[in-house]
Amino acid sequence: MKSGVLFLVLRRSDQVTSSQYLRACVDEAMRMCPPVPGLLPREVLPGGINVDGHYIPESTEIGTPTYAIHHEPIYFPAPLSFQPEQRLTEPEVSGVTESSKEEVALARSAFCAFSKGPRDCVAKQMAYREMMIVLASILWGFEMKVAPGSSLGEGGQAAGYGRERRDGYQLLRSCGIWTGTLFQVAMMLSPTT
Length: 193
Description:
CATH class: Mainly Alpha
Structural class: alpha+beta
Largest sheet: 2 strands, antiparallel
Order of helices and strands: HHHEEEEHHHEE
Helix content: 25-40%
């Protein structure tokens, strides 16, 4: 990527970071693959609590993993599909179906990629700005498409337990070398380069 492209994106960073659709894409990516690896812990208050018929004594640390919250169909109707339009109340680009304000409010109430409440991430706004600038720079400077014949990201019968659905994006996390072509990337070059 030429440095002029990055300069252009950084110079117009306020326009980039104000894009509702780009923000929706970033949020949807973090919903599908939360950056918080575990749960959001809470301590049971004095007297204990009954949860779904089970008594949990006071001072017990409990929580729900972020991944489980972000993949709950009550909040996100198609939890395994990348659908940034679930977060838009007004279509910013043509062809995007707008969601009702109630659906968007419900999804936003469940979204906790940066934790929730008074102890959420203090650098959240800076992180959003950086993610959006980097993503816009990559999208501006490269042309990307899925490699021909690739089924990477799809589930299937041979994919293993919990990964059988072909219609939902599947993430594979492992420690090791990942073989296979994810994308074919062609750099967009000007004729003078």
